[in-house]
UniProtKB/TrEMBL annotation:
Pathway: Amino-acid biosynthesis; L-leucine biosynthesis; L-leucine from 3-methyl-2-oxobutanoate: step 3/4. This is 3-isopropylmalate dehydrogenase. Its cofactor is Mg(2+); Mn(2+). Its EC number is 1.1.1.85. The record marks Y143, K194 as: Important for catalysis. InterPro entries: IsoCit/isopropylmalate_DH_CS, IsoPropMal-DH-like_dom, Isopropylmalate_DH. The keyword Membrane does not apply. Its main location: cytoplasm. It is found in: Cytoplasm. Pfam families: Iso_dh. It comes from Kordiimonas lipolytica. Residues 5-355 form the Isopropylmalate dehydrogenase-like domain.
Length: 360
């Protein structure tokens, strides 16, 4: 049997609850596909800070690097929000693993399952059949740019500083991912930046244009200002196929798109680098408002596992099966975030039960 080394990082808040359902699906896959998962668990985020004084230890990072795929829950919570030392915050653990593994390509599919077209805050006709892929740059930009910090001003008062910074090489490697993905889908890329006010946006536009002309002229390319992109996502989301954007705009635009699909609890993501293991994580956070109640939607996490099967573990057929089972489960069971009249209202485990039942 093939053995895959999988690292699980449940994290904080609803992380452990949704990860329990991921584990059940993994056990089913082992039985159905005759593979074996060599699972290693670790702490990331606030839970790691409480245990070790740091949101991601070198030891956990080393185990993550040595695995074939990493599946993460989510990090953060109000108990750590007072921390002004950004290195110690739960989110710093996530940023560190992204940076250290050079996970520059964050794929965030926003797909509307048929069964959920009525759960969106937009009318059914705007979202039914929606299938957008965000390609978000994840290892650069204002998240990591120097200088950064909070400083005292000489004349009194303080200043908070972050730096948006992109090199041509960083832009080209993420744009390449977007064009390659588009070729396998609708063959269209919208590249979103603010070239009208930011030099980093202008360089982005120039480099994307050059790469397109040199190697991807068969793909339809449109440049769009990020603010207009946000508006168009709500006005007419089905015009989009692949949206290529930077770290910060990608964070905002993908959360907005989540609501088109029914719930933030539905959106998975894959963070890929060049060679090493991928990190698979839901788009949502630790949902402190519902943590510990057993009511969180585990689908984003389970679909993230499906992406791990597809992109890191060469098990595309198992990924298809998991996605089909999620789709089928939605015909009957619904967690609170996507619940509607006529459906059984279930908790996290109940949703897991329905998906396992659909897997057979
Ligand atoms: P959030 O995504 O945690 O929650 C936003 C809203 O969506 C909440 O009402 C929550 O209940 C709901 N929600 C999220 N996931 C859900 C699920 N699976 N099922 C049902 N409902 C769900 O965003 P927030 O409240 O702004 O952030 C909370 C914490 O999470 C912060 O500390 C933030 O830094 C962190 N965060 C972490 C990640 C990550 O780990 N990748 C992502 C975003 C935010
Ligand atoms: C996400 C989150 C993270 C981000 C935070 C928790 C660091 O919002 O994955 O979308 O901003 O990238
Ligand atoms: Mn986010």
């Amino acid at each position: 049997t093939t053995t895959h080394k999988v690292m699980l990082l449940p994290g904080d808040g609803i992380g452990p609850e949704i990860m329990a359902e991921v584990k059940r699906v993994m056990t089913w896959i082992e039985g159905a596909y005759g593979v074996s998962f060599d699972v290693s668990e670790g702490l990331i985020g606030g839970c790691s800070y409480e245990e070790f004084g740091h949101p991601l230890t070198d030891e956990t990072l080393a185990r993550a690097k040595a695995s074939d795929a990493i599946v993460m829950g989510c990090v953060g919570g109000p108990q750590w929000d007072g921390k002004t030392d950004y290195d110690k915050r739960p989110e710093a653990g996530l940023l560190r693993i992204r940076k250290e593994l050079d996970l520059f390509a964050n794929l965030r599919p926003a797909m509307c399952f048929d069964a959920l077209a009525d759960a969106s805050s937009l009318k059914r006709e705007y979202v039914a059949g929606l299938d957008i892929l965000f390609v978000r740059e994840l290892a650069g930009g204002v998240y990591f740019g120097e200088p950064r910090g909070i400083e005292d001003l000489p004349g009194g008062g303080r200043v908070g500083i972050n730096t948006q910074r992109y090199t041509d090489a960083e832009i080209i490697r993420i744009a390449r991912v977007a064009f390659e993905m588009a070729r396998k889908r609708g063959n269209k890329v919208h590249s979103a930046e603010k070239a009208n006010v930011m030099e980093s946006g202008l360089l982005w536009r120039e480099e994307v244009t050059k790469l397109h002309a040199a190697e991807y002229s068969d793909v339809q390319l449109e440049h769009i200002l990020a603010d207009n992109c946000a508006m168009q996502l709500v006005k007419n989301p089905k015009q989009f196929d692949v949206i290529l954007t930077d770290n910060l705009f990608g964070d905002l635009l993908s959360d907005a798109a989540a609501m088109l699909t029914g719930s933030l609890g539905m959106l998975p993501s894959a963070s890929l680098g060049s060679g090493g293991p991928g990190l698979y994580e839901p788009v949502h956070g630790s949902a402190p408002d519902i943590a510990g109640q057993g009511i969180a939607n585990p689908i984003a996490a389970i679909l993230s596992l499906a992406m791990a099967l597809r992109y890191s573990l060469d098990m595309g057929d198992a990924a298809d099966a998991v996605e089909a089972a999620v789709s089928k489960a939605l015909d009957s069971a619904r967690t609170g975030d996507i619940w509607a009249e006529g459906f059984e209202r279930v908790g996290t485990t109940g949703m897991g039960d329905a998906i396992l039942a659909a897997l057979g």
